[in-house]
Each structure stands twice: as structure tokens, then as C-alpha cells.
Amino acid sequence: MTAELLERARAGDRDAFTALTQKHRGELQAHCYRMLGSLQDAEDALQETLLAAWLGLDGFEGRSSIRTWLYRIATNRCLNVLRSSARRPVASAALPVPAPKPTSMGEVPWLQPYPDVLLEGLADPTPGPEARYESREAISLAFVTAVQLLPPNQRAVLLLRDVLGYRAREVAELLGLTESAVTGALKRARASVDSARSAEAPPPPLPGTPEEGALLERVVDAFTAFDVDAIVALMTDDAWVRMPPLPFEYHGSVAVHRFFTAIGPHKHRFDRMVPVRANSQPAWGIYTQDPAAGRLHLTSLIVVDVVGDRIGELTRFETTVASYFGLPRTLPGSTS
What are the RNA polymerase sigma factor 70 region 4 type domain coordinates in residue numbering (predicted)? Predict the structure, then answer.
């Protein structure tokens, strides 16, 4: 069937080309997201990959699978973006309300969340024999953030080897490098990512279990009441609060408490929290009611990293990618 589709696609049949590549689209987009850290940039890179594959189909010699050939194109498209520094502009470095001095300044202001719905039904969810990361960890915000801090070649090598499970020889062929160069880049990338990862932590409750449901209910109660003490009590002692594209980050219970206390009088109220999932983590669309119009307006999206029975990291995002999560811009307000 693949040979027949390939022959028809080479003859100019776009439907055959779509049938040949469609099953790989989801995993290619996830790969581009890991490379670029931005859902919108990943979608652009995916479209460029498919266009390049269509235009270059005659150059496919069949020495590898269609899937591997597409990964070669996608990875190199992402490397071109990274090397050209052609990133989307980010917001100016200013908080909308008075806030305490941050613990640190984040280095990945372009980071965006990735909807779990896009991870469903991937053509090849099982990584190769060389993979080191489980699928959930390999899409988590913490992992994607750590990958963004790697140089381009190290980033590509780490993802192809440790996430997708390609062998060193295969990665060398994909990237046009020597096998020794791949091995060296992988060693440096692993050291950098390992240093950024937290020590062994208790796993979160499984999605959909009563344990997770009870924890998330407490999160919603604390935030809709904006009870700072309750919010901080739900977080680990070394929790992080981040808010890309703003670079300000707060680390540790004292800094987090100080931050939420400072923004409390100026905050956009959390009138409704609509549950979604992002990066295999719990997330919510945050809505605020307009007193005049009576409707609820989407103001942000928050994603939490659960460690055991508490929150280890909370990341607030703008509403740019709301449509990918099926979150409407407005909802009917409360009639009470």
C-alpha cells in the first residue's frame, strides 16, 4: 500500500501524499514542539515540513522509512528556525500589577502549552529501543523548558536519541553528522538536562482517579477564593511560579506567598476555572466575569505540575493558544 501511495504521490496525486503522511502528522508536530517550545512555531514548522516533503518527493530514495525521512526534514526545518533566531516577538518585560522582586528571570519567554488532545492517537507512541524518557515526561513543561536551553544540535540529538529512540548511527545520518559528534553532543545534552531536573520526586496521582480529583478540587477552591494561604499550602516548599512570556519567576514557598499576596488586590478574579489538560498535566482556562456585560472572559491558562499530592510548579500562559484547547473567549456569566 505504501509503495502504491508513493508512486501515485510522485505522479502528482495530493490525496495520495496526504494518505502517505497524515498518520505521522501528530508525532511530527509534537517533535517540532519539543524542538521549538512554541505550539504556534511547531505548527508552522510542520506545514513547512509537509510542503518540503511534497516538493522533494522525487528525492526520497527509500533507504529509510517515510517516517524517518519526514523526521529528517522536520528536524532540519526546526534547526533552521533556531539558527536564524527567527522567534516570535514576546511581551515587554513588565508585570501588569505591582509585584515583588522575582527570584530569577526566565530564559524561555516563548514557551507555550501543548494540548493533550493533540497527543491522542499518535501513529507511533512507543519510542525506539534507545529511548530514555517516558512519553509523559518527554512532553512535560519542565522537560521542554530544559530542552530549550540546549544549543540546537544538542537539542536535536537528545530528542532523536532519548525521546524517539533512534540509534547513534541513524541520528548521524539524519543530521549529517559523524557518529562521534552525535555521541559527544548527546553526552553534553544529557548532563545539562539532568542538572535541570528535580531530584527523584513522588509520582502524581493517575489522571481521572479520585486522588487526582480531590487534589484538583482543592486547587479550584483555593484559587476561586484566592486564598493565598490555601494556595501556598497546596504547593511544595520549593515550588515554582512562572508566567511566560513575562520572564519573572518565583521559587520557594516564601517567594510564592509574597507574590500572590502582592497581586491579590490587583488580580483578575478566578470566577470560573474550566478544566483542560496540557503537556500531560492538569490545566484550566481562567475566566473573569465582566460586571457590566455579565459575561465571563477568558484571561489566562494555568498548568500545574503535580508532585505526589502537591503542586511543584504552576505556569500561567496568555490566551494565544486558547483555540487549540477548545476554550471559548467568552462564556455566559452567573445569573446569581
Answer: 142-191
Cβ count within 10 A of residue 144:
22
Q: Within a domain: residue 128? A: yes
* Cα–Cα distances in angstroms (integers) from residue 49 to residues 83, 107, 142, in the given order: 17, 27, 26
Cα separation, 157 vs 34, whole angstroms: 12
Instruction: Decide if 96 is inside a domain.
Output: no
More confident residue, 34 or 293: 34
The three cell numbers of residue 244 are 511566560
Helix 25-36 vs helix 141-148: angle between axes, to the nearest 10 degrees?
60
The whole domain housing 233 covers: 210-331
Q: List pLDDT tens digits, range 247-268.
A: 999 999 999 999 999 988 766 5
On the question of pLDDT at 88 being above 60, the answer is: no
Is this prediction's pTM over 0.85? yes
What mean pLDDT is predicted for residues 15-27?
94
Q: In total, how many domains does the chain have?
A: 3
* CA distance linking residue 319 with residue 299, whole number of Å: 7
